[in-house]
Amino acid sequence: MRKKEFSIASPHRTRTRTRTARIRDGAIWRLMAAAALMLICGLASASPPHQPATGHHPPSATPSPDEQETLRFLLEQRRLVRDIYRHLHGAWEIPAFADLAGAEQRGIGELQRLHRQLRLRHLPADGEPGIFADPALGQLYRRLLTQGLFDIREALELGALIEEMSIIDLRDAIDESRSHRLDQIYIALLGNAYAHLRAIHRQLARSGVDYQPRLLPREGLEAILNNALVSPEPSLDLISQVSL
Q1: Does residue 40 carry a pLDDT above 50?
Q2: Whole-number Å distance between alpha carbons of 180 and 118
Q3: Residue 80 CB partners (closer than 8 Å, separation 6+)
Q4: Domain ranges of the chain
Q5: Which of 113, 114, 161, 204 has the greatest number of beta carbons closer than 10 A?
Q6: How far apart are CA 161 and CA 20, in angstroms?
Q7: pLDDT tens column, 111-138
Q8: Is the dihedral of CA 40, 102, 130, 139 positive or negative?
Q9: Topology classification of domain 19-38+61-225
Q10: Rounded Cα gap, residues 221 and 219, in angstroms
């Protein structure tokens, strides 16, 4: 398994923390730091270019405790992303933000359905925006609410940043997973994130913006934009078409 390296790490990380805790904390702290520096270009990332796992793991009856924790975290993270896109749509009334929120809602539904099918406990509630079982996600949500309100460019760049976060975290979840059923949905969601990032980047390029990635390395972004990194064809119909 490849070694994980992050350009921005949680100050609370210790050697005794579980792999899932590192995924969660790394995701939150990366995005908080990147959001705070959103208008500064050229933030370096130590994450190497990554070809997504094929997901050919043997079927597993019940995910491990770490896999279950990651599933619950990703479910709440998708809620956060959906609610931020809804917030951006309310601020700018751009239909594409509503489309992106709808794609996230479909992903949430599939994650919830899988959680129930596996008869797992502690399904996170889909409550009001900003209320999460993980308080750090609530803090991140409130910080992101202040972004994307200055102009359309800032709103689109926030969307791109969110998709970068999704790509990194879904790749980590695929690397962690030893469950074919988890692989299926994570790979489908990864394909969604690739498609969304391409669509947002196209709109930024039309506006004359040379978008600089905040979390992915530049060569990793270029590989996604050039379709050099493509998720295996998912069996779940989650891949959305977003016109920007």
Answers
A1: no
A2: 12
A3: 132, 137, 140, 141, 144
A4: 19-38+61-225
A5: 161
A6: 22
A7: 999 999 988 888 888 888 989 988 999 9
A8: negative
A9: Ferritin (1.20.1260)
A10: 5
What average pLDDT does the structure give for the chain?
Answer: 79
Using a 10 angstrom Cβ sphere, with 0-12 exposed, 13-18 middle and 19 or more buried, the burial of residue 217 is middle
Task: Write the pLDDT tens digit of every residue in 206-226.
Answer: 999 999 999 999 999 999 999
Q: Which residues contact 121 (CB under 8 A, 6 or more apart)?
A: none
Cβ atoms of residues 225 and 180 within 8 Å: no
Take residue 75 and report the two structure tokens written for it: 């479910």
- Calpha distance 19→134 (Å, rounded): 17
205 pLDDT more than 70: yes
Ramachandran assignment for 233, one of left (phi > 0), alpha (psi -120 to 50 degrees), beta (any other) = beta
pLDDT value of residue 30: 63
Q: Are 82 and 53 in contact (CB under 8 A)?
A: no
User: Which residue type does 217 have?
Assistant: P
Distance (Å, whole) CA 84 – CA 109: 17
